[in-house]
Amino acid sequence: MSSAALADEGTKAVAAGKYAEGIEKLSQALKERPAPLWLLERSKAYLRTNEFDLALHDAEKALQVAFSRANRDQMTEAQLRRAITLFRMGRYADADVCAFWATRLVEKAKATEDDGQQDKVDENGDYVVRASEVSNAEKMDRNQQIATAMGGGGNSKATSLKNQATSWRLQALNQLENLPAGHPGLKVNVVKYPNPSDKPGANPSTAVSAKDQGLDENAKRDSWKIVWNHFSSAFVAKSVRSSFYQTDTTINADFFVKNVPADRFAVSTQPQKVVMGPIANTGSNSDSLQLHLWGRVKPAETKYTVKSMKIELVLKKETPGKWPMLQREDSEGFTNIAGNTKVAPSFERFSTLISRLGYNHPDELNLPDVSIDLDGWYDALLGKLAAGLDEHGESSKIPNAITEATSSSASANGATQPKSNPTQASDSTPTTSKADSTKTVGSAQAYPTSSKKGVVNWDRIGDDDGDDESKEDADVNSFFQKLYKDADDDTRRAMMKSYIESNGTSLSTSWAEAKSKTYKTQPPDGAEAKKWDE
């Protein structure tokens, strides 16, 4: 099958939500040539499976190739994809800078212009651009956007990209306003045109030399791939599905596990870690649940309820504000807790974590024989991973701080072996609560629902990029509503007359033009206007 046919199948799989299949097909196609559009589709798929580092790598690789070909449209899409990925990673300043670069490309600015956007920081290095500046700039450009959106000419694709970029800028800058000074999300670390390696996930500071180990690099990779295959299968089979929603002050998480022994169940809370268990009567490491939290909480105010089908956990945030995710990005998929869908981490993420924890070969893990006792093997591996995550504490709370923190540590001290005790604390003394099987502990859900699909996480609606077209439509509608609200009486009359007479296909802001003109229905190309009685 040709690379183009593979890429087409991969793109269709991504559109259908079959992300693993899409990634596989697109990866095969990309072996033939690094087409920017294929890279962007794979980046989208990686993002929707929470493979943030790989999603960012593909977006930056697409930008690199598009820049070398002087393809402005693809450069714009790549910068926008970078912005969306960085937003999901909690790097809000970086997200705004990349979205700004996307708008400049749409505006036909010189691709290599030195706009200085990444240098807009204060003396502490915190990004100083705010949402009000973007809103004011959007007002100045509103007439041109209306004309294009209503079929008055111009490049509709460019306008669509600019609308999306502006929408993501506003989202990122609104998040920035909730961050305290010095927060990593306020720092700017991006460059306009990065030079990503051909091998995503490579980290020279922690990479193990095949020469030092006396192993061929391909053989070593194959040995780790066997471990990853077993881990992935066990993770899908044994991990606990979870969901969460939040307010500015609380985190509400549900863990869907049946028949928890409530009389023995307890929760141990540290400022950035929660250990719960037992959830069964096996007495193993996988018999407890560990959360490595994205932000800090108040241990003394932890509440929980054990029900027949799930555990409900309520945590009080130490600092009010929204979290981009429940757990630290580097811990996602490396405990026995899964999200709404059980998707194991990719091999690239797995090997990066293993390397960061200082393991050079599977034998160093000292795991049981997987062919004899898969459960025991998986339990032992979870213990090793938990110990390593504890070792790194809060250093990896913001994605991509992983490689930076490891780089400086590794270069100064060499590789660090993980702790052997998976429950050792990495913070202050935990607060432990005992379960009450006859009495509900905690508070009611903030968003009750009768839906069979369970609780909808309304606070995270809009955080995912899966509905880019919906975001675009909402952005345009919001823009028109704001335009009408801020307009004078003549402008409002012109807007109403043109919109009603044309059945919503034209919009004018000039009363001098509209008062003497009769507007006809002008459907978009490929559409046909019909009367209701036909």
Automatic annotation (TrEMBL):
Recorded family membership: Belongs to the SGT1 family.
Ranges where the CS domain occurs: 237-327
Residue stretches of biased makeup (Acidic residues): 462-472
Compositional bias ranges of the Low complexity kind: 405-416
Protein known as: Uncharacterized protein
Compositional bias segments (type: Polar residues): 417-452, 500-511
MF-aspect GO terms: protein-folding chaperone binding
Region feature (Disordered): 195-216, 405-477, 499-534
InterPro entries per UniProt: CS_dom (IPR007052), HSP20-like_chaperone (IPR008978), SGS_dom (IPR007699), Sgt1-like (IPR044563), TPR-like_helical_dom_sf (IPR011990)
Domain SGS stretches: 446-534
